[in-house]
Structure formats: C-alpha cells, structure tokens
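Hi R.,

As promised, here are both runs. First protein below:
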Amino acid sequence: MTPTSEITSSTAVLVPDSVQGVPAAAETVLRQMFDVHRATTARISPVVATLVDQLAAFTLNGGKRVRPTFAWSGYRCAGGGTDEAIARQALTVCTALELIQACALIHDDIIDRSDTRRGRPTVHRALEAEHVDRTWSGDSGHYGVSTAILLGDLALSWADDVVASRDLPAEIRDRVQPIWAAMRTEVLAGQLLDVVGEASGDESVDAAFRVMRYKTAGYTVARPLQLGVALAGADETLADALGAVGDGLGIAFQLRDDLLGVFGDPAQTGKPSGDDLVAGKRTALLALGLQAADSDDPAAAAELRAMIGRPLTDDELDRARAILRDVGAERAVEDHIDRLVAESFEALDAAAVDPSARVELVTVATAIAGRRR
C-alpha cells in the first residue's frame, strides 16, 4: 500500500449528502492527507516535515473549497451515490483539487510578487521572514521563493498521487484521467498566457477572456463538474453539458475576482485592494476599461495606463477606480457576470440532471457569482 492509498481507507470518513457539507468533509480529508505526508516526509528529514507543516497550514487556512464543491456537485448531478465505498474514493479525488489550488496560489503569489494572501503573509514571504529571523546565510528573498516553488510542486505531485492511487473501477478511472490531465495542462497554459500577456502588454479583451477561460474557469468550475460526472460513471454527453455550464460560471467567478481585486474591501478579501493594477495584471476589467477609455476619453486612458504595473498611492488608486467606473468598465463586468450566470443556468436546465442536485448547483453558483471576498 502506498502512503497516499491510506487516505480515506477508513469508513469513518463522512460522505456529504449535499454540496453544503463538502467544505467540512474536504477539510477532514485534507487533514488526513497532510497527516500521511508529514509522517512520510519526517522519515526523510524533520526539516522537510516542518516545511510540509507550513504547506498544510496554508492549504487549511481559509479557502471556500469551491473546487471540491463543484466536483461533488457534478457527482451529484450525475446521480452519484453517498452510501457506498466508491463515494469515499470520489470525495477524496474531489478534495485533491485543493492541492492543485494550493500549488496554483503559491506560484501565482510568487509571479505577482504578492505580500499577503487570506490576510496573512504569502508562503514565499513567510519563508523569507523565517530565513531572516534565523539569520541564515544567503539571500532571504531567493530562499523564500525557491522553497515556496518546491512546496507548490509537492502539492501538485501529491494531488496526482491521490488520483492515481484511488481504488476505482477501470471504466471510471478511464473517464477521470483525461479530464484530470486536461485540467492540469489548461491551468498551467492559462498561467503562461497570463505571464506573457503582462510582459507583452496585450490589452485586448479577447486575450483577457482567454486567460480566464484556461487559468481559472477550467479548473475552478468546468473541469471539476466534469470530474464529478466521471466519478459517478456517467457518459460524456452529461460531462460535455456540465462542462459548458461550468465554463460560463467559471468566467463569472473570475470576473467577480477581477472586481474584488480593484474595488474589494481588504478586510474581507484578505489582500490589498488594487493589487491587480499594481501587478500589471491584464484583467478583463482593465481591458474593458482601456477599450472604452480609448474611445471616449483618451486622456483618461493614458492616465490609467500610467498607473498599471507600479505601486500606487491611495489617491492614485481612487483615481483608477473612478476612471474604470466613469468609462463603464465596472458596469460592463457586472453585466457580463449576470449574462454568463443566466446562460449557464439555461444550459443547466437543458441538461438531464438530478433535480435536487440542480438546485444545489444553482445555489452555490449564485453565491460565488455575487460574493464579496
């Protein structure tokens, strides 16, 4: 038995009977995962085990467990049961998405040079501070980045191990693997598009939506829904239908994130307001704002461009917000969110899904589309 196969081998793991119970269930499974990996890495070195503790703390600290929730929703929509051994295996695969998320967030914070996440120092900054506190040799910043990259890699590899080690029927495994593989490729490709877009200064709305589709929408909603369908053993027709539903909902999720990145309250979001502008992220909000300003107010467009990718004073940030509001970008993003959610719900109505599971999915989707953090 491999270390990862030990996870949820006990029938004591409670399988949620609705998507509302997924965050708590996923928390339990995540703790089991990290207990197993801490024991394994402690046999290599206490140093590695201590670093794994930091990865565990980051993963378990906050987070809405959106991806496992959508995966379990897909499982429920496809008629997946909750009272059999395979349901525990399915729950574990759904929860492994949180390890993908941990990897993505750790690496994204490095790329964006972010200082905080969920109201706390980002992983690379926390490790940098630890290096300073211990008066170790070498460059503290480089140590923090290097160690955080490796911890992100561990999270990604452990997620793969979870999926590979599940005791699933061959026909279900054959459905799961292509979806999992496509999701990994898409999220990394989306990140690459994001980095290249910032470096090249691509301001097009099309480019911003392409990044959203692959960097966020795919692994946040569309692929998790399809993963759940595959875990329930349903056919590709339903997987394709829920993939289309998830594509719209995932883009709406990221558009809300774009708004929160500029207009959000740091006390609720856990990160400084305006970080996206400071980092020079080519979000849809910014692309729509520049497109409208170029047409209606070129001076404001030039002013906004001058504020992208550098530290901003409070007055400058207020001015950037005012420009985005005045040219209609904020309203345009809200309209996109409303349209995408409505279209996704229409597509869901056309899909053959369990009625109670449909209600749960609509409830979760509505909550994330209108969230404030």
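And here is the second one, sequence first, then its structure tokens:
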Amino acid sequence: MTIRPDNRLADAPMQPLRCQRCDGPVLVRKSSWEQTSIQWSEQAMEDCPNLRTDRYRTCPDLRITIQQATLNGTVKVVDE
C-alpha cells in the first residue's frame, strides 16, 4: 500500500504563533474561518497553565490569541 503525501501543508504551511498569556510557541494553520489546526510544542504544553490540569482540553487563551492573530492578518486563512 502506498501512502499518498498530504500536499496541503506545502501550499499553505503551518505558521508559528505564541500564546499571549503564557508565550508558549505553537504552529497553527487556518484552513477556513471554522477550522484550525494546532501543533503544540513540548515547551508550550509545559508552559500552558490550562493544559497542566487537562492535556486534552483546548486552551481558551490560545484560542483567543489565534482569533486575534487571524483578525489582524498575522495568521492567514487558506480558504478565503
């Protein structure tokens, strides 16, 4: 069986961003206004006060940071 490469990241790579609250570095990609992909770095997972209690929860502070970065154009929306 052949694994087909995912070319979406070649066309629109993930972008670095730091959380406004804890300064944790993550990579984000906004495929659309409704869909966001996040890659957490080990440092961000350690620094995030919201993930210390539950690693599987979404951090509301990072969500706000991503929304603001998208609105001001720092993070680009792929499907506009």
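A quick note on the second one: The mean pLDDT is 87. Let me know what you think.

Best,
J.
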